[in-house]
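Risk mitigation, structural track. In case the binding assays with 6-O-phosphono-beta-D-fructofuranose fail to produce interpretable data, a predicted complex structure has been prepared as a fallback.
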Amino acid sequence: MRIGILTGGGDCPGLNAVIRGIVRKGINQYGHEFVGFRHGWAGVLKNEAVELTNAATRGILHRGGTILGSSRTNPYKVEGGVDLVREAMRERGLNALIPIGGEDTLGVARKLVDEGIPVVGVPKTIDNDLAGTDFTFGFQTAVQIATDAIDRLHTTAESHNRVIVVEVMGRHAGWIAAYSGLAGGADVVLVPERPFDIDEVCERLRRRHALGRNFSIVVVAEGATPKDGTLHSEFEAKDAFGHVRLGGIAIELEREIEQRTGFEARMTILGHVQRGGTPCAYDRVLGSRFGVEAIDAVSEGDYGKMVALRGTEIVRVPLSEALAEPKLLAPKVFETAEVFFG
Ligand code: F6P
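Fallback model:
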């Protein structure tokens, strides 16, 4: 078979492990051939691709980002987009596609399946908010990066008697915030799933300081919202999938906390640092397992599926299952983080 691979949406540590897994098993065990489209669906529309061989995918396991490049291009927003996908597949002699991506990339994949294009998806996102899989690769790396940052911010917060507000990614889910807050010993964690009351946040900080602690760490997810307010973003632009660019709630929190409590406050927005660099071992392993399962699924003609982690097993689930609803933070995880607040 000849198979096309692409990586779409925000990049994510572990993408190269998936590509390597697909190609290594696909060539060595099944004798398939592979092309990698450049920059997600954009490369499919422009038919811009490279041959993916064992040699081309050697030495990439530990590398962050994606050797193929990525984009947030949506073929359904481009006139004749689906025809261009078919054309690229015909010209390259492809029998199937393996898109590796989040909700948006896999949403396109699902529609293409409905149009008769053979596709098997691989879930990817640092946000861990995709339904159908217990974890996505990239999440553990992002949590580790955020935790390392919180550890560093702890020592400077302590030296200066400050409240430090750390903003992490996660879009509309609080997975990264709750995990890194728990691992980093945050005093307050604010997540989108639980709209916050700024008075309560300040009261908690006052109580903590009254007990003799002279610094605090507040971890806030970029998508967290105040109870009586709306989503805060410094940006207005939307991407091709209609998502608003998030970021900046920490700026507002820094100001509010300082004004209301009189404690000196500083904020840090971790941003894309959380997505960059070396994937941790867990994400390399999960990515490799996903890649190997994806090529097995394609080889068996088991299309319309997404590979997924359920417990400790790698399984295949219908793409539609992954796209039903975003997987929000499990309440129990937040409640555990809450035990250590203040
Ligand atoms: O979905 C992954 C993610 O990193 C989100 O956490 C974040 O909101 C978004 O992507 C940022 O996207 P961009 O790369 O377009 O800035």
